[in-house]
Amino acid sequence: MEDASKHAQTALAVLRIVTALLLIEHGAMKLAGFPAFGVGGAGDEANLSTLMLIFSLREVFGGLAVLTGLLTRPVAFLLSGQMGLGYWTTNFSGKSAFPVPNGGDGTLLFCFIFLYLASTGPGAWSFDAKMKRI
Predict the structure, then answer these.
(1) Are 123 and 11 in contact (CB under 8 A)?
(2) From residue 26, how far is each of 7, 130, 132 by CA, in Å?
(3) Which domain holds residue 35?
(4) Distance, CA of 116 to CA of 80 (rounded, Å)
(5) Where are the transmembrane segments (predicted)?
(6) Is residue 72 part of a domain?
(7) How many domains does the chain have?
C-alpha cells in the first residue's frame, strides 16, 4: 500500500485554498453583495459598521494572503482569532451553546481550520514554501 503521508502537503494546500476561497466569498458578499445577492449584500454594504467593515476587509485580503500562501501562519492566526471572536459575539451570545442551532458551525470550522494552518503552515503551492527555497 502506498504511503499516504507523501500526499500530506498537497492535501494541506487543497484545504488552505478551498478555505481561503470560501472566506473571500464571505468577505466580498458583506462588502459588495457579490456573489450572493440578497444575503446581506447588494445595498446593505452601506450599512456596515466600522468593525464589520474591518472584519470584511480582513476576510478578503487575509483570504487572498492565505490563498496564495503568503505569510500564512500569522495571517491564519489573526483570522482564527477573528472567527473565534465572531462566533462568541454573534452566534454564541444569548443563543444555544451548540453550534448547529445557533448557526455558528461554519464560523467554528473557519476558526479551527485557520488555527490548524497557523500551526502547520501553508503546505505545497505557496509563496511561503517558495521563499524558503530561496
Answers:
(1) yes
(2) 29, 28, 31
(3) 6-133
(4) 9
(5) 60-87, 107-127
(6) yes
(7) 1
pLDDT, residue 22, reads 97
CB atoms within 10 A of CB 126: 23
User: The C-alpha cell of 96 is what?
Assistant: 444555544
Give, to the nearest 10 degrees, the angle between helix 8-32 and helix 50-68: 150
Give the chain's end-to-end CA distance (angstroms, integer).
Answer: 35
Residue 70: CB atoms within 10 A of its CB come to 15
Q: What pLDDT, on a 0 to 100 scale, did the predictor assign at position 97?
A: 84
Inside any domain, residue 1:
no
Q: Where are the beta strands (DSSP E) in 33-133?
A: none
In this structure, the number of other CB atoms found within 10 A of the CB of residue 58 comes to 17
Q: How far apart are CA 64 and CA 74, in angstroms?
A: 13
Local confidence pLDDT in tens for the 134 residues of the chain: 678 788 999 999 999 999 999 999 999 998 888 776 555 544 454 566 888 899 999 999 999 999 999 999 999 999 999 999 999 988 888 888 899 999 999 999 999 999 999 999 999 999 999 998 64
The reply to whether 115 falls in a domain is yes
Chain mean position to CA 87: 13
